[in-house]
């Protein structure tokens, strides 16, 4: 591993699928730590993960009243490309929502699901599809 990448963490290789940051491709979470699929706000698809890697808090923690109760949240961004991906639950007021504490809720559209087979192919072939825009301009 390169010295400059020492802060970059990786999801276990033994999982069927993992989620990486759509912006920079670094690992974010393993599918086995996916707790819940739902929505953030009214219509933004989101995933709740028990554990994650390569996320760092951005901004101040805040209190917010969501549809399921009041929470203390910390906004989280990708440690590598700094794109805000979602938030971490620091505390929950409701008894039945305590399972969310310590978990992160991330926008599904900002993550890329990578199956293990694809991960292996990408590591060995470094295959990259051509950018769609360039293909169009060539005609
Ligand atoms: Zn990123």
Features:
3-stranded antiparallel β-sheet; globular; binds zinc ion; single chain; mainly beta; Metal Binding Protein, Guanine Nucleotide Exchange Factor, Chain A; 7-stranded antiparallel β-sheet; 2 helices; 139 residues
Topology, pairings included?
Blueprint: E1 17-21, E2 27-30, E3 34-40, E4 44-49, E5 55-57, E6 62-66, E7 69-78, E8 84-92, E9 104-107, E10 111-115, H1 116-125, H2 132-137
Antiparallel strand pairs: 1-2, 1-10, 3-4, 4-9, 5-7, 6-7, 7-8, 8-9
The protein binds zinc ion.
**Mean of the pLDDT scores?**
85
Give the low-confidence spans. 1-6
Shape: globular
Percentage of residues in helical conformation: 10-25%
The overall strand count is: 10
How can the largest sheet be summarized?
Answer: 7 strands, antiparallel
CATH fold descriptor: Metal Binding Protein, Guanine Nucleotide Exchange Factor, Chain A
Q: Look at the structure and name the CATH superfamily.
A: Peptide methionine sulfoxide reductase
Kindly provide the name of the CATH class. Mainly Beta
Number of domains: 1
Structural class: mainly beta
Number of helices: 2
Rg from alpha-carbon coordinates = 17 Å
Strand portion, in percent? 35-45%
Order of helices and strands: EEEEEEEEEEHH
Bound molecules: zinc ion
Question: What is the straight-line distance between the termini?
Answer: 42 Å
């Amino acid at each position: 591993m390169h010295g400059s990448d020492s802060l970059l963490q990786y999801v276990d290789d033994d999982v069927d699928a993992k989620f990486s940051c759509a912006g920079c491709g670094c690992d974010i979470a393993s599918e086995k730590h996916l707790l819940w699929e739902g929505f953030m706000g009214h219509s933004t698809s989101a995933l709740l993960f028990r554990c994650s890697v390569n996320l760092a808090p951005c901004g101040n923690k805040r209190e917010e009243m969501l549809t399921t109760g009041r929470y203390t949240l910390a906004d989280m961004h990708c440690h590598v490309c700094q794109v805000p991906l979602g938030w971490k639950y620091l505390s929950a007021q409701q008894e039945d929502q305590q399972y969310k504490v310590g978990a992160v809720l991330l926008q599904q559209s900002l993550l890329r699901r990578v199956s293990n087979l694809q991960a292996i192919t990408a590591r060995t072939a470094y295959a990259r599809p051509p950018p769609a825009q360039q293909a169009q301009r060539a005609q």
